Amino acid sequence: MKELVVLSGKGGTGKTSLVASFAALAGDAVLADCDVDAADLHLVVEPKIIRRSRFSGGSRARVMSGHCIACGKCDEVCRFDAVFYDGPGNGRVAKTFRVDPIACEGCGVCAWFCAEGAIEFAPADNGVWFVSETRFGPMVHAKLGIAEENSGKLVSLVRAEAKKVAEARKLDLVIIDGSPGIGCPVIASIAGADLVLVVTEPTLSGLHDLGRVAELTKHFGIQTLVCVNKWDLNAELAAEVEGRARQLGVETVGRICYDQAMTEAQINRQALVEYANAGAAADVKEVWSGVSDRLSKLGPFAIL
Ligand code: SF4
Ligand code: SF4
Questions:
Q1: Closest of 150, 179, 176 to residue 163, by C-alpha
Q2: What is the pLDDT of residues 11-38, one digit of tens each?
């Protein structure tokens, strides 16, 4: 089984559109939406949820106001300004201390220092993850709770579950919509993957982002390809991006032209290759052909 991760340096480069089209072209692959901060693959592939599970990425403090004597120790030791003196009173004190669940970083120091044992430190409810069916095959995806931070744990969980689904169904490929950027979530998206495709644009930030992502994939020893989306918006910069890719030892696997059909396909909740045949859709098929060729050279892999 192979894991292909589609990445970009930032959001809005067309990464998710490409993933949806790859899913359509691959046939029976498992989809994993690891862009959990801004998950939107579900808008195109319309998953039918068959299993839903809670996700807890850590613990969080909560003052049990009935036990609090308002000594203020928790406020004193909290480095994250998450403790406030505005909790409800009890039989002993008029006001108690309270932990703001959004500001709490879950370090547990306050619970350790509270001599009254008035702080509960329990697993937090950080989000939910799903196993679904789509018209292209199974999909694992997730939703972070409001104001929850993505540490990469949920991304790792989505990837691990997608692999389990692939093994159970005897499917050869997991296509991962990776987190953008170069932080913990993207590292969780790519570590141990077989192939990374970087989707970039002909802009100065695209040029810069390619360098950062390529450094990261090189660090993890993962074969990396690049494709330039909307290349014709700035042919000169597109060539520069490809030149930079060559310097970085990253092969350019294709160019995708700017095409209004990409947006129209999304509005119609279709993958681009379902919606159109020519223009960008034809370019995406070329890119997929290059990517699947590379995947097949990595070892046993059935191109469907
Ligand atoms: S340390 Fe414990 S008893 Fe003291 S204010 Fe905080 S919660 Fe209340
Ligand atoms: S767990 Fe840590 S961050 Fe949260 S309130 Fe206690 S000391 Fe502050």
A1: 176
A2: 777 888 899 999 999 988 999 998 877 7
